[in-house]
Write a structure and sequence with these properties.
Number of helices: 5
Largest sheet: 6 strands, antiparallel
Structural class: mainly beta
Oligomer: single chain
Length: about 450
């Protein structure tokens, strides 16, 4: 059971540590658009018939939908349409969007096209804003100046109908388009309608703010407007990600990953107070925010259906040539009674650049530290007291296959100071060397192997 948990954990850590980043494509530099495979290839060939080949696909830069060709059932007919983002050589205003559908001959055709409202596609979301059982298309367009504009559309009768998305400033009465730094959709109040949450930094008033945007009727048509907002910690300088999930029981929460200056980051949690119909940000109200050095996204680390949040602390550090400070990351659940983080659930040292993590038990957290030799990427694990570095217990090193094969053969399996394989693939070998004193701390090859998590 433990090994199954660790295997699942290693996959989740990969997503969290990478921030789910996808390769960036500079489509302006492509002589021809990249060709899709399978059904996507049929869609692109149909677009070729309309546009020729003098165009480049545009890829959303953020969010979960990162493809230039996205399939979705936009009109609730149980048949998926295709959205294609691109730019032709003649376009000077930026990206374009075409909706494609299949005809009676089962062939893809362009049914509707629009000019985008920015030079690039920042992200694409789908949510049922009006509660009619279908989905609205939410697009974040990125302008030439780098700002992000929210746009919403409803696909009906073969056309994309724009849904106004604006806000009116209280002080001036001026109405403007909704803009954002981070954007996510979630039905936080469980009313069957998806709300939009836009986070931004108000540089004029020196504060971070999240606005909840709802669909409502304006005369005979619908529009998206700001229903409520909430100020977050004024020390937040930028947003780096967002997500949502259950935080306790059936309660859904939204999180925003934030930077606080250049050296630390944190997570802000938003909950819906149904009794008072307002947003709550419990972490912003804390005197001591939960800071960390890595920009680690909140995830369901133990697959129990509840999100966990990461904090980290530096491991005890002692003088060592070519060493760097390592951090112990701990995952916590949310405690609704204290409106804070609960007791730690899982602790590890993460090495995302080398593709692995090392699980730390409570006993290890109290008695073992680690230092990394940056000259050869060896991680040394030591016992320690409050002020002194103790004995070396084991070390983990990443070898190339060639380096591994060049190592001398051990005399036998019980030989001391011999690297033993933890994991290998076609290119590399992760290995551990157990010291002679490790057994005094109940550390064996098996315990290290069980604690080694490959971020696969």
């Amino acid at each position: 059971m433990k090994k199954l948990f660790l295997l699942l954990l290693s996959c989740l850590l990969t997503l969290s540590l990478s921030g789910c980043q996808f390769p960036a494509f500079d489509s302006d530099s492509l002589m021809n658009p990249p060709k899709a495979a399978g059904d996507g290839q049929e869609i692109q060939e149909a677009l070729d018939r309309v546009l020729g080949t003098d165009y480049t696909l545009r890829y959303p830069r953020s969010g979960t939908n990162r493809s230039a060709i996205i399939r979705a059932d936009l009109d609730a007919d149980d048949i998926e349409e295709a959205l294609v983002f691109y730019r032709t050589a003649a376009d000077t205003s930026g990206a374009r969007l075409s909706v494609m559908d299949k005809n009676d001959a089962d062939e893809w055709n362009v049914t509707y096209s629009i000019s985008g409202e920015g030079s690039e596609v920042e992200r694409v979301l789908f949510t049922d804003c009006d509660g009619d059982g279908g989905v609205e298309l939410i697009i974040g367009w990125q302008t030439y100046t780098g700002s992000n504009i929210l746009a919403a559309y409803k696909y009906t009768s073969g056309q994309l109908v724009s849904i106004p998305a604006t806000e009116t400033a209280e002080a001036t009465g001026v109405t403007s388009r909704l803009s954002y730094s981070e954007l996510i959709a979630c039905d936080i109040d469980s009313d069957g309608r998806g709300e939009l949450f836009i986070a931004s930094i108000d540089s004029i008033n020196s504060k971070a703010i999240v606005k909840m945007v709802r669909y409502g009727l304006s005369g005979s048509s619908g529009e998206l407007t700001v229903a409520t907002d909430i100020d977050l910690s004024p020390s937040i300088t930028a947003f780096s990600g967002s997500g949502y999930g259950k935080v306790y029981g059936d309660t859904t929460g939204i999180y925003f990953s934030c930077y606080r200056g250049s050296a630390s980051s944190s997570t802000e949690l938003l909950l819906w107070d149904s009794e008072n119909e307002r947003l709550e940000a419990p972490f912003s109200a804390l005197d001591e925010p939960f800071l960390r050095t890595r920009d680690t996204q909140a995830i369901d680390i133990d697959a129990d259906g509840i999100m966990e949040f990461a904090t980290d602390v530096p491991l005890p550090s002692f003088s060592m040539e070519n060493s760097e400070t390592l951090y112990l990351t701990t995952w916590h659940s949310y405690n609704p009674e204290e409106k804070s983080l609960a007791v730690e659930e899982f602790t590890c040292i993460e090495f995302p650049d080398k593709g692995y993590s090392v699980f730390f038990t409570k006993e290890w957290s109290e008695s073992i530290t680690a230092q990394r030799d940056t000259s050869d990427d060896t991680v040394y694990f030591y016992s320690h007291s409050e002020s002194d570095l103790g004995e070396e217990l084991f070390r983990i090193k990443l070898f190339s296959v060639e380096e591994w094969e060049d190592l001398p053969e051990p005399e036998n399996d019980e030989s001391e100071y011999v690297y033993r394989e933890l994991y290998s693939d076609s290119y590399s070998v992760y290995a551990v060397l157990i010291s002679a004193v490790a057994s005094d701390y109940d550390i064996t090859f098996e315990t290290v192997k069980d604690s080694f998590l490959l971020n696969s």
